[in-house]
C-alpha cells in the first residue's frame, strides 16, 4: 500500500522569524518518496511557508485520512496565543499579536491524527520556540496524539538578531539522501548525533528532545525540577488592577548560596490578583502597592526562603477570603508556594503542595487530563522521589498512587513507577 508524506516548513516573514524553516525543503525534496515514507511508493505533499491556517488544516486532514502509512516532517517555530496560552505553529503572516488568527494551533495535529491506526503515523519535528513558548513547554511536553510516534527536538530561542537553522531536520534529510531508511528511532538518534548544539541558541539551554517512550529533554522519570514553571491564572482579568511589572531576570541558579544545584528560574509574575494584603487597602489616588512577586523573587535570591513562603501564604489566605476555595487566585498562590518549597530544597513540603493543588483543581471541576492538573501531579511525583524519610515517603506515596489512578498523565508507566517505589519502601524500616 502506498504511503503519504507531508513536508511542512513554516516561519513568519520579517523580524519575527526565528528559524529559516524553508531552507530544509530542497534537501528533503531530493530524497526519494519511497525513502521518505518507508514504503514501496508514496505520495508527497509539500507546504512551504503557508499563509493560512485553514490551508494547512486542509492538507493535514487529507493526509490523515489517506490509507497507508503517514510520515510528516515539520519544521518551523512555536508561539503562544495571548488568550488561551496554547502553542501554535507560526505561519508566514504570524506576529506575536495575531498568533490566534494567523498561526496553526498545534493541538490540531493531535486532533486530526487521533483516529489513525496505531503504528501507522510517524512525525519528525524540528521546532524553535520563542521565549514565552519555551517557558510553557518546560512542564508540558509537546505531543501529537496517543497513536502517533513523535520524534525530533524543540530548540530554545536563538540570540537576538539571528535566525537559526533547522539542523536536526537537515541531518534527517541528509541521512535519508543516502537511499537507506533506518527505523524512525535509529534515524532520530543518528540525527541527534549530528547536532551537538547551535551556537546561536540561548546559552545554557539544551534542546527539548522528543521520542516515544523516552524522557522529556533527556531527563529520567519523573520530570526534573528545572522543567517546572509557575503559570499565571488562565482566567486572569484582561486589565489587571496594577500596572504590569517586568519579570525578574536573575535565575535562582545564580544565587551564591545554592552552588552546584541546577534550579529553575524564579517564576515570572502573572497579573497580580485583585486582592490586597491586609492593611494595604488604598484610597483613591494613593500609591499602588508593589507586586508581591517582586518581593518574593528578592527573598528567594537572598536565600530568605521562609520569608518568601510566608508572604505567598499570606496572599493565599487573602485570596481565599476574597475569592473563595477553588478560585484561580487561590490555586495560583498554592502553585507559588509549592514551587518555593522546591526552591528551598524542601521536597516533602513541595510534594504536599503539588498534591494539594492537584486535588483542589479536581475538586473545582477541572478534568484529570487538563494540562494544569497533569502538571501538578507530575511535579508532585518528582518531588516525592526526593523525600528521604521512608515513613514520610510511604505516606505521600500512598496519596500519590491514589491521585495517579485518576490522573495517569502522559508518561506511560507513571502509576506502575509509584507502586514499585512504594513496594521498595515497605521493606525499609
Describe the protein.
This protein is 39% helix and 12% strand. It has 15 helices and eight strands. Strands 1, 2, 3, 4, 5, 6, 7 and 8 form an eight-stranded mixed beta sheet that branches. The longest helix is centred in the C-terminal third of the chain and has 19 residues, at 305-323.
Short summary:
It contains 15 helices and eight strands.
As a whole number of angstroms, the C-alpha radius of gyration is 23 Å
Strand percentage: 5-15%
Low-confidence stretches: 199-204, 214-288
How many distinct helices?
Answer: 15
> What percent of residues adopt helix (DSSP H or I)?
25-40%
SSE succession: EHHEHEEHEHEHEHHEHHHHHHH
Averaged pLDDT = 78
Euclidean distance between termini CA atoms: 60 Å
Q: Please provide the count of β strands.
A: 8
Largest sheet: 8 strands, mixed
Notable characteristics:
429 residues, 12% strand, globular, single chain, alpha/beta, 8-stranded mixed β-sheet
Write the layout of secondary structure elements.
Layout: E1 3-10, H1 25-29, H2 33-37, E2 42-48, H3 53-65, E3 70-80, E4 87-89, H4 99-102, E5 104-105, H5 107-113, E6 121-129, H6 131-137, E7 149-155, H7 167-176, H8 184-192, E8 208-210, H9 292-301, H10 305-323, H11 328-343, H12 347-363, H13 371-384, H14 390-406, H15 414-426
Parallel strand pairs: 1-2, 1-3, 3-6, 6-7
Antiparallel strand pairs: 3-4, 4-5, 7-8
Helix pairs in contact: 3-5, 7-8, 9-10, 10-11, 11-12, 12-13, 12-14, 13-14, 14-15
Amino acid at each position: 500500500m502506498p504511503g503519504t508524506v507531508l513536508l511542512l516548513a513554516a516561519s513568519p516573514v520579517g523580524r519575527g522569524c526565528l528559524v529559516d524553516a524553508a531552507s530544509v525543503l530542497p534537501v528533503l525534496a531530493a530524497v526519494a518518496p519511497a525513502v521518505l515514507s518507508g514504503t514501496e511508493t508514496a505520495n508527497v505533499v509539500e507546504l512551504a511557508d503557508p499563509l493560512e491556517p485553514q490551508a494547512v488544516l486542509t492538507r493535514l486532514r487529507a493526509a490523515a485520512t489517506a490509507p497507508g502509512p503517514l510520515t510528516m516532517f515539520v519544521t518551523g517555530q512555536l508561539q503562544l496565543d495571548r488568550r488561551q496560552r496554547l502553542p501554535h505553529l507560526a505561519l508566514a503572516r504570524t506576529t506575536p499579536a495575531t498568533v490566534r488568527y494567523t498561526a496553526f494551533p498545534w493541538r490540531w495535529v493531535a486532533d486530526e491524527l487521533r483516529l489513525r491506526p496505531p503504528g501507522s503515523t510517524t512525525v519528525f519535528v524540528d521546532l524553535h520556540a520563542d521565549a514565552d513558548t519555551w517557558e510553557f513547554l518546560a512542564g508540558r511536553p509537546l505531543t501529537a496524539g496517543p497513536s502517533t510516534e513523535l520524534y525530533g527536538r524543540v530548540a530554545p530561542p536563538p540570540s537576538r538578531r539571528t535566525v537559526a537553522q533547522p539542523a536536526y531536520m537537515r541531518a534527517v534529510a541528509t541521512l535519508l539522501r543516502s537511499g537507506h531508511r533506518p527505523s524512525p528511532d535509529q534515524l532520530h538518534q543518528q540525527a541527534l548525533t549530528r547536532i551537538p548544539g547551535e551556537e546561536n541558541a540561548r546559552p545554557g539551554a539544551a534542546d527539548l528532545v522528543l521520542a516515544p517512550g523516552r524522557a522529556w529533554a533527556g531527563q529520567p522519570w519523573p520530570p526534573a525540577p528545572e522543567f517546572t514553571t509557575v503559570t499565571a491564572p488562565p482566567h486572569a482579568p484582561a486589565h489587571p488592577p496594577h500596572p504590569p511589572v517586568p519579570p525578574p531576570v536573575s535565575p535562582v541558579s545564580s544565587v551564591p548560596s545554592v552552588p552546584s544545584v541546577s534550579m529553575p528560574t524564579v517564576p515570572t509574575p502573572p497579573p497580580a490578583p485583585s486582592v490586597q494584603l491586609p492593611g494595604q487597602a488604598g484610597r483613591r489616588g494613593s500609591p499602588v502597592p508593589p507586586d508581591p512577586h517582586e518581593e518574593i523573587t528578592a527573598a528567594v535570591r537572598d536565600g530568605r526562603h521562609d520569608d518568601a513562603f510566608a508572604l505567598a501564604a499570606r496572599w493565599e489566605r487573602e485570596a481565599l477570603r476574597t475569592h473563595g476555595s477553588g478560585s484561580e487566585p487561590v490555586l495560583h498562590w498554592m502553585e507559588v508556594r509549592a514551587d518555593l518549597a522546591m526552591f528551598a530544597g524542601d521536597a516533602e513540603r513541595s510534594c504536599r503542595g503539588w498534591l494539594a493543588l492537584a486535588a483542589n483543581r479536581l475538586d473545582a471541576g477541572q478534568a484529570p487530563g487538563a494540562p494544569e492538573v497533569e502538571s501538578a501531579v507530575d511535579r508532585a511525583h518528582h518531588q516525592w522521589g526526593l523525600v528521604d524519610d521512608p515513613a514520610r515517603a510511604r505516606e505521600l506515596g500512598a496519596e500519590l498512587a491514589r491521585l495517579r489512578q485518576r490522573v495517569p498523565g502522559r508518561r506511560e508507566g507513571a502509576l506502575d513507577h509509584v507502586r514499585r517505589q512504594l513496594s521498595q519502601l515497605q521493606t525499609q524500616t
